[in-house]
Amino acid sequence: MSVEVKGLIVEIFKIRENEYNLGLTMDDVPNWDSLKHMELITRVESDYDIVLDLEEIVSMRSVNSIIETLKGKGVSID
Fold first, then answer.
1. Distance between CA atoms of 37 and 78, rounded to whole angstroms?
2. CA-CA distances (angstroms) from residue 64 to 3, 4, 5, 11?
3. CA-to-CA distance for 9 and 15, rounded, in angstroms?
4. How far is 78 from 68, CA to CA, in rounded Å?
5. For residues 45 and 20, what is the distance between their CA atoms, to the nearest angstrom?
6. Of 12, 15, 37, 14, the residue nearest 26 (C-alpha)
7. Are 4 and 46 a contacting pair, CB within 8 Å?
8. Are 16 and 42 in contact (CB under 8 A)?
């Protein structure tokens, strides 16, 4: 798991670190709404110096899908 992704998820969605897991989805996090999703997208693009297209943004509905999208952009995830 990437500490960076974990840190982003914990910070943006205000969850406890022990709640973080690869299977975590939008449905699991009460405040993962459209505004928080766009905050996540903005931070991901800024922190990883990438540009996401609409299809990628819409598909990022879980921790696992976020990590897979980053890998697809050539970001190295530990």
1. 23
2. 13, 14, 10, 17
3. 8
4. 12
5. 21
6. 37
7. no
8. no
> Which DSSP category does 22 fall into?
T
Tell me the backbone φ, ψ of residue 73, rounded to 5 degrees. Answer: -90, 5
pLDDT tens-digit map of 7-22 = 999 999 999 999 999 9
* CA separation for the pair 59, 78 (Å, rounded): 21
Q: In sequence order, what are the beta bridge partners of 62?
A: 25
pTM above 0.85, yes or no: yes
| C-alpha Rg value of the chain to the nearest Å | 11
Alpha helices in the chain (DSSP H): 3-13, 34-48, 54-59, 63-72
CA 5, 7, 8, 12: dihedral to nearest 10 degrees? 150
Encoding tokens for residue 13? 């969605």
